[in-house]
Design brief:
By secondary structure, the protein is of the alpha/beta class. The chain has a single domain, classed as Rossmann fold, CATH 3.40.50. It has 8 helices and 7 strands; from the N terminus they run E-H-E-H-E-H-E-H-E-H-E-H-H-H-E. It has a 7-stranded parallel β-sheet, with helices on both faces. The radius of gyration is 17 Å and the shape is globular. It starts with 7 loop residues before the first strand and ends in a 14-residue tail after the last strand. It holds the Pfam family adh_short_C2. It comes from Bordetella genomosp. 9.
């Protein structure tokens, strides 16, 4: 498929996991891709796997509005326009509220919530020009609760409802705004979990499809939501979770 030929896409958190897989997916479908993140070495490793005339690395801290504005400006100056903004960058500190710190709260909110706000606010003026779309990466944790993940749940819950509201505000401007809500997905952040056989067996009991996701499986849904195949879809927070949401996270009975 070449749904994104002559399209320009920004992917934040593109140095690993879902972000890296998403950058590769858009490039495979013909897009010019701007890879954003805080670690240049990681971004360049991913960019080196893409067509060099359609890949650009831009070191960016999404928590800083001036850096995100520079990111969007750089993308437009390099490739001429912006058609898709994927707000993927995120962190996930764990622990109960009495075990984590106020700084942990500020850190997760600055990246997971402010980062999405900054990305949307900076991209929307350019997306209005192209009739483009935004895909935010939320989580099933933004649709319900998890043990020892209250900060992350609060942040992703904010992204979930922000996506709904923003979609309503900008639909008449020709912009579609959706989110994907993955469950457990293989990445650097979850490497220890995926290597813990006993833990993964417990997760498998809760997920009807019996496993966690691969980042490419999330990337394919992001690409769908950004494409014209989803041209009448906006304001959706789409679980990509192997049936976890449908089962309410309950293990099989009997």
């Amino acid at each position: 498929m070449t749904r994104f030929t002559n399209k320009v896409v920004i992917v934040t958190g593109a140095g690993s996991g879902i972000g890296a897989a998403t950058a590769r997916r858009f490039a495979q479908e013909g897009a010019s891709v701007v890879l954003a993140g805080r670690t240049e070495e990681k971004l360049r490793k991913v960019a080196d796997t893409l067509p060099q005339d359609r890949a650009l690395v831009c070191v960016t801290d999404v928590a800083q509005m001036d850096q995100v504005q520079r990111l969007v400006k750089t993308a437009v100056e390099r490739f001429g326009a912006l058609h898709v903004m994927v707000n993927n960058a995120g962190i996930a500190p764990g622990g109960r509220i009495t075990e984590a710190s106020p700084q942990d709260w500020r850190n997760v909110m600055s990246v997971d919530v402010d980062g999405v706000f900054n990305g949307c606010a900076a991209a929307i003026p350019e997306l209005i020009k192209t009739g483009g779309s935004i895909v935010n990466v939320s989580s099933v944790s933004g649709l319900g609760g998890d043990w020892k993940m209250s900060f992350y749940n609060a942040a992703k819950g904010a992204v979930t409802n922000f996506t709904r509201a923003l979609a309503m505000d900008y639909a008449r401007d020709g912009i579609r705004i959706n989110a994907v809500c993955p469950s457990l997905t293989r990445s650097e952040l979850t490497a220890d979990m995926f290597s813990d056989r006993a833990l993964m067996e417990k997760f498998a009991e809760r997920i009807p499809m019996g496993r966690g996701a691969e980042p490419e499986e999330i990337a394919s849904v992001i690409a769908f939501l950004a494409s014209d195949d989803a041209r009448f879809v906006t304001g959706v927070n789409l679980p990509v979770d192997g049936g976890l949401t449908a089962s309410n996270g309950q293990p099989p009975q009997g």
